[in-house]
Amino acid sequence: MKKLSAFLTLVMLVCLLAACGSTPPPSEPSSSSSSESSSSKVVESSQSTATQTAVLYAVFNGGEVKEYPVAYTGAQITAEELADELTGLTGLDFTITASKGTDGLTVDWAADSTLLAGLGGREQKTDFFFFDSDSLGWFMMDSLWKTLTENLGVEDIYYTMDGGQELVVGTMSPPLNEFPSDTPYMGSEFYEAHSDGQGDMSDVGDIYLRTEGLWRMDGEADAASIEMDGIGGFTMYYASGAVEAAGYLECVDEYGDGSYRYDCYTMDGTLITSFYFDSETQIHLGNDETVYRLDEGTFMQRACLGFWQYPEGMILELGAERWTLYADDGVTVLSDGPVRYEEEAVYLMNDDGSSGGGRASFDDDGNLVESGCILTYLGRDYSDVPKG
Q1: Cβ 264 vs Cβ 277: under 8 Å
Q2: pLDDT given at position 215
Q3: Cβ-contact 256, 248 below 8 angstroms
Q4: d(CA 169, CA 150)
Q5: Residue 92 in contact with residue 114, Cβ under 8 Å?
Q6: Which residues pair with 160 in a beta bridge?
Q7: Are the C-beta atoms of residues 185 and 157 closer than 8 Å to each other?
Q8: pLDDT at position 342, please?
């Protein structure tokens, strides 16, 4: 019995020892889990210190776009930082604040930004020099818009000003200077193409009006050119100045979606070539992609066309070919004559060709100045101003 009792005791001890051995020790972090956590911290650290590249986009009148890479550190560059980079690049004040919305980014232009305050007395950089306030305004809005959408992955940019007010750029020509805060900014080409009297496709006359002016191959003065009268007529010139061809235009809605093609015919009905608009200041011919740009003197003409009021109340009408000065009643004609537009100024000539009417040009703030007087723009709608 003693042997049996000792045997049972031994069996029980063995079972107890076996049960104790089956209990796992307290768990510790696995080597793989520890490695993943360490790796994650290294990635986060490298993202915050690694040098990355953003691209600044400078969008010029005529559709020309230049790219400027800039380096930065951090996981994501901000809208304000991109705007600051544009300021350093161009010498213009891109002073903004940005906030995210449900469907895009709202960008608020500060009152002291160059867009709203004008150039003032600043000396413009050679690569970013503007003769008129419209070109300056479009450049700033287009460049920031493209820079933000390309770098931040946002599709819609909403512009406001001075703390959330509706954006009205006082230095630019109305009506293309007002931008609703509830509508995404669409770019200058869109607004110019859909503005009344400048490319509005709802009227046949306007379809040809956008062709008006002298268009030079590659924008060069000593190259071939095309002169169009804005009502469907054209004349093509060789680089020597000799006439190559003349005739009329036919506008075709090629795909039924507003992709207008302009066919050039001689007076006997022979098709010479076709062209398309890349922007309001650039066209290309057919399939060979030859580019023609609107002459710089025509830039000045388009900026000046319409009615301008002197501080004394007199009204200056600037047309495509003639100028007329009215008394403050808007009816009495004081003087008139032909107009000559050049790159930097408009010359008010006498009928005999002499310079007697004066010289008008835009100052650094975008104001039209004539004989020392700053003129107030009244618009291009001739019905707004009484005439005899």
Answers
A1: no
A2: 92
A3: no
A4: 24
A5: yes
A6: 108, 166
A7: yes
A8: 82
The label of the residue with tokens 């818009």 reads: 145
CB atoms within 10 A of CB 158: 21
pTM for the full predicted model: 0.44
* Residues near 337 by beta carbon (within 8 Å), at least 6 away in sequence: 322, 323, 348, 349, 350, 351, 356, 357
Contact 209, 198 (CB under 8 A): yes
> How far apart (Å, rounded) are the C-alpha atoms in residues 313 and 262?
43
**How would you label 32-54 residue by residue, b for 16+ Cβ within 10 Å and e otherwise?**
eeeeeeeeeeeeeeeeeeeeeeb
Distance (Å, whole) CA 124 – CA 130: 8
Q: Residue 32 corresponds to which tokens in the numbers above?
A: 């793989």
The stretches in the chain having pLDDT less than 50 are: 1-45, 196-205, 382-388
